[in-house]
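chain and backbone:
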Amino acid sequence: MRYKVIVEPEAVQDLLGIKRYITEQDSITKSVTFISELKKSINTLVEMPHRCRKSLYTDDENVHDMIYKSYTIVFKIIDTNVHILTIFRQREYKL
């Protein structure tokens, strides 16, 4: 079964923020490349989105987390759609 990936408005804003941050910290070239690679990773969810772990951020069984480099992509599976809800960078946990 193939799923349709739908990027919700909040996740679009997250992508724009990530791009802006990488541009400020490094370069526009690096940010464009990173966002392109991140989108390719997200698009792999058209097949077998259940392969990703259940989300650590909710008890909803239909919400999963995909990890890409140091970023977490939180998505919800509804019927044959994968809704990208938010994307954020994981921070290191320090005691």
